[in-house]
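Summary of Year 1 activities. Much of the first year was spent building the evaluation harness for sequence design. The harness presents a backbone, in tokenized form, and records the residue chosen at every position. We chose the following record to illustrate the format because it has been used consistently in internal testing since the harness was completed.
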């Protein structure tokens, strides 16, 4: 207790009032110190705001706002205290940027304008799927919209050139389509699941302007057709083929020279040709036109006929030699007589 001795009464009253003020100030300071203990600066360098146990360099519990200036503001807005189901947003005020998460661990990158809301540009789903132009990706990478053509001079968006993979109706039936659209000279399409074929089509005047030309078809049985949509062979070509070299696996015709080979006489060949209008063992022209020609078999038949002709020539040469000998003997007899 403080006693005031030799002090005028008026001063005693003033000292008592000041004592009350000092007590009030001390109470306020003590109360502020008590409530400010949630802001901690640990010895390890971690800083806590709203927490007495910071685990990071800056550990903030509660809502916060980082203000760069009056125009370019960045907000971090937590929506839940449950970290497993937390949703949050990072929004640049008055600037078209928003990064948002939700309770499903999805991340959305959006453009944002006041009064117009968010327009999602890219999505990363919690299951690893990524969507561009869509917030509902159905595969590892789902792109909704065109892919711009890249050139040596940079980005080219003339006529909205893009390469498109997939079409809603096609995807529902399990097929796929690769298209190049808008302001172009050609469109290539691949895919037709309903017929178990993959088709490569050419639209010479642009998509929708002319009927497509089926350039090549890959059938489900492994057959390939060029110029035909119904290949019946491993490679079925409707049209001409030009190549510098062609190798065909085939069997030879050396069996013609075996001793037991039954070579027709020229008389038999003559009779057969008169009756059938084609060589023996060779298909008629009409059959070739309708069914085509097995190149390996045809080469073997042609080689067989060449070897038969060789045998005929050898036989004729023998006969000619015999005739010459007989003719020479006849001349000698005539001259002797």
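For this record, the design step produced the sequence shown next.
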């Amino acid at each position: 207790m403080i006693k005031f001795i030799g002090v005028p009464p008026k001063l005693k009253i003033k000292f008592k009032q000041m004592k009350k003020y000092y007590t009030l100030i001390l109470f306020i300071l003590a109360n502020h110190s008590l409530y400010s203990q949630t802001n901690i600066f640990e010895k390890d360098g971690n800083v806590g705001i709203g927490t007495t146990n910071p685990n990071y360099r800056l550990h903030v519990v509660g809502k916060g706002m980082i203000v760069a200036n009056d125009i370019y503001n960045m907000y971090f807005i937590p929506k839940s205290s449950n970290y497993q189901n937390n949703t949050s947003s990072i929004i640049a005020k008055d600037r078209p940027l928003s990064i948002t998460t939700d309770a499903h661990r999805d991340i959305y990158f959006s453009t944002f304008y006041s009064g117009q809301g968010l327009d999602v540009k890219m999505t990363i789903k919690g299951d690893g799927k990524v969507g561009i132009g869509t917030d509902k990706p159905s595969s590892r990478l789902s792109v909704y919209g065109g892919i711009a053509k890249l050139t040596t001079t940079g980005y080219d968006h003339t006529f909205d050139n893009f390469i498109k993979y997939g079409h809603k109706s096609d995807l529902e039936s399990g097929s796929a389509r690769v298209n190049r659209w808008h302001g172009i000279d050609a469109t290539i399409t691949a895919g037709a699941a309903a017929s178990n074929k993959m088709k490569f089509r050419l639209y010479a005047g642009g998509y929708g302007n002319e009927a497509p030309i089926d350039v090549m078809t890959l059938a489900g049985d492994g057959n390939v057709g060029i110029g035909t949509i119904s290949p019946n062979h491993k490679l079925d070509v409707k049209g001409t083929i030009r190549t510098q070299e062609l190798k065909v696996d085939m069997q030879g015709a050396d069996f013609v020279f075996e001793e037991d080979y039954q070579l027709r006489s020229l008389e038999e060949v003559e009779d057969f040709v008169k009756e059938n209008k084609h060589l023996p063992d060779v298909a008629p022209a009409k059959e070739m036109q309708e069914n085509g020609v097995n190149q390996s078999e045809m080469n073997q038949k042609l080689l067989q006929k060449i070897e038969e002709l060789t045998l005929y020539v050898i036989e004729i040469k023998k006969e000619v030699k015999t005739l010459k000998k007989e003719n020479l003997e006849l001349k000698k007899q005539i001259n002797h007589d």
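The radius of gyration is 48 Å. Quantitative recovery figures across the full test set are reported in Table 2.
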